[in-house]
Amino acid sequence: MSEGRLHLVPVRSRDAKEFVRLWHRHHPPPAGQIFSVGAADEAGILRAVAVVGRPVARHLDDRATLEVTRTASDGARNANSLLYGAAWRAAKALRYRRLITYTQAGESGASLRGAGWRVLAHRRARPGWHTPSRPRTDRGTEQIARTLWQAPEQDLSSTPTNTTNSTT
Fold first, then answer.
1. DSSP for 127-152?
2. CB of 27 closer than 8 Å to CB of 71
3. Second label for 72, Cα 20 to 30 Å away, from 50, 123, 132, 161?
4. Element containing residue 112 per DSSP (H, E)
């Protein structure tokens, strides 16, 4: 695989889900999405995807917030940082005000920090989602603490320069 410069590409839902199925370490593809975006190398080979959808946590689903529900990469350098930045720009273009995601304990968050995201909260491990009123099947990711991240409130690259009018 070439390690050339990556560029953003549109990705259809089914293609993003298949990429996640092949490359994600611990989760299956998400059920739904609002949009997805990919990173391809100079040869046009898809190297990474990000899937963005409604927040999984019901209390965060306020119609102004989206969640990056999956990213997956074949290991291409800086691909996830590129995708996190692109996902936030796309969400803002669609008039969303907030974009969040989670990392699991043991994941460094380097790609998120590289894209300017910040930690909002550390969530303790859950025993699972199963309750008598809502039976759930364990997926192997229970009992793992998570960190909640949020995209930067303002894109630093588009911050206007402070200009002052001086009268002489």
1. S-S-BTTB-----S-TT--EEEEE--
2. no
3. 123
4. helix 110-114
State the amino acid at position 107 in one-letter form.
E
pTM: predicted TM-score of the whole model, two decimal places = 0.84
CA 69, chain centre distance (Å): 6
Residue type (1 letter), 154: Q
Q: Where are the beta strands (DSSP E) in the chain?
A: 7-10, 35-40, 46-53, 65-73, 98-104, 118-123, 146-150
pLDDT tens string 90-146: 999 999 999 999 999 989 999 999 999 999 999 998 777 677 887 877 666 667 899
Tokens 């009992």 map to which residue?
Answer: 143
pLDDT, one tens digit per residue, over 44-77 is 999 999 999 999 999 999 999 999 999 999 999 9
Look-up: residue for tokens 């560029």? 7
Length of the chain: 168
- 153: helix, coil or strand? coil
Q: Which residues contact 160 (CB under 8 A, 6 or more apart)?
A: none
What's the pLDDT score for residue 132? 82
Q: Please calculate the CA angle 72-70-113 and round it to the nearest 5 degrees.
A: 80
